[in-house]
Design a protein that fits this description.
With 451 residues, this protein is mostly helical. It is 65% helix and 1% strand.
Length: 451
């Protein structure tokens, strides 16, 4: 019986991992075609693999400017990979199911529930409908705002293409841009004095990073008091991280002439906000990341590591995972045996799960930073670590070293992007769906000195 349950669990997690891998491989084939390149000459298999992985895992790290390298067809492939990777392959499958009015079976419900990081399968189909139509509605709204902003200056064609592309990329927290048409490799730096563009993208990034479950519950209950403890923790953590991150970046970059130093006060505040929001796995940049002070890079890496919320388009450790970890440490430091939040007890196994994920992430980050430095001696450890955090947390910001890395480091980044999107999810599902049976025996307890 246990073997059958274990087999079923492995099948569902393997489905998620294998389908993501298949999507990446299909994207690689399409992007490697000559028709995908602006020059008509194939970009090569490995660059196509790197780009397809980055797009499907909604990361945003690139080896070359997206607009300069890829044709309209190639950009459409990237956009489709972002949409599927951001909303999850089960959302795409659900569209077909709903369109054909087919009955969703138990196995399909289980996979859909796991793909969205739900605790059970109740109302998963209803929630999936909210995810699909709500996501499309938010993206359409963002696309319209951006389109009308770009229309007077760049014409109808560019306005429509830019509006749609960047609304999808922003909501899915991907960070890909096609502004290379006016400033190759500069991302949003040409628009760092444009409140409409930056605020619209910040709104899309934030909504996408909150998580499907959170905004569905907010819409359904219409009252924050009636929301679950999880939703309250997500909203509080998101607000605190954005405000604290903005304040620290303002403080550290206020007089840096290469970033915020020469901007008027309102623009400094706007770009500090944008920097903090985009670090929560979006990947757009409005200031040169390579010119940030090392203190700001350290703060940025912490924000990147925390990331967005579970069941969202964002990556990272996840907000509530980080909050549970802090609450557990705080409780233990005060000599308390239980962890509480909003008059509810958080099970100890959840705290242990949070610590496990945190340890895995930090260990990988340290290894990745060292690996980049060893294989690329000209790259400093802080820049190598910055690149590694960006890949593993599926953020996509870079200090400008991505194209300069050797083959081994690029392969590692591909693996980290995939693990950051799929590996963390499957580990979390292992916690969620793991066997709860007690061990058949246990050894006697022993006392150890800790601390």
């Amino acid at each position: 019986m246990f073997a059958r349950k274990r087999k079923a669990q492995l099948q569902t997690t393997q489905i998620i991992a294998l389908v993501f891998a298949a999507i990446i491989l299909l994207g690689t084939v399409l992007l490697a075609l000559p028709v995908s390149s602006r020059s008509g000459v194939s970009c090569g298999v490995f660059p196509a693999l790197f780009t397809a992985t980055s797009a499907t895992c909604v990361t945003g790290l690139v080896l070359f400017d997206t607009w300069s390298q890829f044709s309209g067809f190639g950009q459409a492939v990237i956009l489709l990979l972002i949409e599927v990777g951001g909303l999850g392959f089960m959302s795409a499958a659900a569209v077909v199911v709903f369109a054909l009015r087919k009955k969703v079976g138990l196995k399909q419900r289980m996979v859909m529930a796991q793909a969205m990081s739900l605790n059970d399968m109740r109302d998963v189909v209803r929630l999936q409908k909210v995810v699909i139509f709500g996501s499309l509605g938010v993206q359409l709204t963002g696309a319209l705002v951006l389109m009308f902003r770009f229309l007077p200056e760049y014409g109808l064609r560019k306005a429509v293409i830019w509006g749609v592309f960047h609304a999808i990329s922003g909501f899915c927290n991907a960070g890909f841009d096609i502004f290379g048409a006016i400033a190759p490799g500069q991302s949003l730096i040409p628009f760092n004095d444009d409140p409409i563009v930056l605020i619209t993208l910040m709104a899309l990034i934030t909504v996408g990073g909150l998580g499907f479950f959170v905004w569905e519950e907010i819409v359904r209950t219409r009252s924050l008091k009636k929301c679950s403890v999880y939703t309250k923790l997500v909203l509080i953590a998101t607000t605190v991280i954005i405000l604290l991150g903005t304040g620290l970046i303002l403080l550290l970059e206020w007089n840096n002439p290469a970033t915020l130093g020469n901007m008027p006060i309102w623009q400094k505040i706007l770009n500090a906000f944008f920097q903090t929001v985009t670090l929560r796995t979006a990947g757009f940049v409005s200031v040169d990341q390579g010119q940030l002070t090392e203190s700001t890079k350290a703060v940025s890496m912490i924000v990147m590591l925390i990331g967005g919320s579970s069941g969202s388009t964002a990556g990272g450790l996840k907000t509530v995972t980080f909050v549970v970890l802090l609450l557990f440490i705080w409780a233990k430091a005060r000599g308390r045996a239980t962890v509480h939040a909003f008059s509810r007890t958080i099970p100890q196994n959840k705290a242990i799960d949070a610590m496990t994920i945190f340890f895995i992430m930090v260990a990988l980050l340290f290894f990745g930073g060292c690996f980049i430095c060893v294989t690329n001696p000209t790259v400093s450890f802080i820049d190598g670590l910055y690149e590694t955090v960006s890949a593993l947390a599926t953020v996509g910001v870079t200090a400008g070293v991505t194209p300069l890395l050797g083959l081994a480091a690029k392969i590692m980044l591909i693996a980290f992007m995939y693990f950051g999107r799929v590996g963390v999810l499957t580990i979390s599902l292992g916690f969620l769906m793991g066997n709860k049976a007690e061990d058949r025996f246990r050894y006697a307890d022993t006392n150890l000195l800790i601390g």
